Amino acid sequence: MSDGSSFYVTTPIFYVNDVPHIGHAYTEVAADVLARWHRQAGDPTWFLTGTDEHGQKILRTATANGVSPKAWADKLVAEAWQPLLNTIDISNDDFIRTTDARHEVNVQLFLQRLYDAGYIYTGEYEGYYCVGCEEYKQLSDLVDGTGQYEGQLVCAIHSKPVELLKERNYFFKMSEFAGRLLELYKTRPDFVQPESVRNEIVSFVSRGLTDLSISRQTFDWGIKVPWDESHVVYVWFDALLNYATAAGYGYDEEKFARLWPATHIVGKDIARFHAVIWPAMLMAAGLEVPKQVYGHGWLLVGGEKMSKSKLTGIAPEQITDTFGSDAFRYYFMRAINFGQDGSFSWEDLAARYQAELANGFGNLASRVIAMVTRYFEGAIPAAVETAVTEAERSIRATERRVTAAADAAVSRLAIHEAIARIWELVDELNGYITEQEPWKLSKDPANADRLATVLNTAVRGLGTLAVLLSPVVPEAAAKLWVALAGVGTVQEQPIRSAYEWQGGDRVEPLEALFPRIEVEATA
Ligand SMILES: [Zn+2]
User: Fold this and answer.
1) Structure pTM?
2) Identified catalytic residue from 75, 224, 255, 305
3) pLDDT value at position 520?
4) Are the CB atoms for 272 and 228 separated by under 8 Å?
5) Which of 70, 173, 224, 308 is labelled catalytic?
6) Which segments in the chain show pLDDT lower than 50?
7) Residues with Cβ < 8 Å from 518, sequence gap 6 or more?
8) b/e map of 431-461 (b: 16 or more CB within 10 Å)?
9) How far is the CA of 275 from the centre of ligand 1 (A)?
10) Which has the least CB within 10 A, 76, 80, 86, 412?
11) C-alpha 215: how far from its chain's center?
């Protein structure tokens, strides 16, 4: 059993029916920043992502493209989903595909155990099914269609008609777990966050749970039900188990015990699967429920939720090709309060790039290194204790304060807040340089001690920033660390004591961390 110090973080596994858009990349970056932070803090960390490859929707897409579903999945994983991770600098420790043998075999094992324990029975189900969601819908989840779907009931999420299906299926006795789930939400208020998502989940389960249909007979692209191979496992039941099978469930119990339970980062629209069905499945199997399910908000483009089907999909490379992966990561983590919906706009991205990254942080680094080069021939001067003033003491206090505050924010998954706290040091250092005017101090040898102390303080401050910002802007932080002749790599520096400068004695030339970009008017 895990002692709680390990940090096992997951993204949802993404459907391979289509290529990634910035909404997927947003989730990946959030999980990655958390993983990098914990890794750099020395916490045992494991970061899982992957792809969801079964189900009717993928079968239909593959068939429409004239290939087998496995060939379709292989192509999308190789050409779109794995490359996404490079595009935005994701540091995942594992990548699971639901067509992996380690997954398929152990989904069957899990299901057999539930069957043997009496949690699965045969029943008949009739209901409205949304292929987009891969789930049966309650009438309350449907809305009246418009345009070409006028007069039909459509899925509220996909705006497409649902199908009335009747199937003889296997059912999971989920209704038996409503009481235990409500108890879980009550005794562990952090289990589902943020609060808005928690409230919705509690109110949903309070109305009572129905049993869950967990097999399908109408198509065969999925994991076979072990005791009845004419059925395949419902794709969500299959997909949720990736978090356990990737962690060793069924074949490496030592690893599973070490990693489990996980922190799941998901979009709020799939929080219900993760905070209701998934813990009920785990309870039935006698396993620990997740540490936390965090349902982040939607990315809005022009006021609408980002999705390919609504034609507002923006590919991550459209942003990284111009601004770079660091700017992509910084922008989405900084501009949007994690947990709430947030709007993306090219104007806001370009403005923040220029003001915060290029002028705020990048320019600070260039100026300080240029002054050390000019006034000390590149040798980082030592501070002279007798020349230390209130201004330097304030910078040092800020370094400690923001380090602790950012770490506390990360522990609450408030990534935007962590960055805002760190930026207080960027702003204070910029103000410090402006006020101390090292270029004036350099003109009079009588100020030599002050000049050395000011530039030493600025270099230390930059070192603190490199360590603290490494999880967010890993490329820029690594370049800055090298330019400051920091010891080892920046990722090795313990983040909870970022203010303990581990520097060398000479600065190296630094190329612009965030070069000026001429932004054309983009849609
Ligand atoms: Zn739907």
Assistant:
1) 0.93
2) 305
3) 57
4) no
5) 308
6) 1-2, 521-523
7) none
8) ebbeebebeebbeeeebebbbbbbbbbbbbb
9) 19
10) 86
11) 30
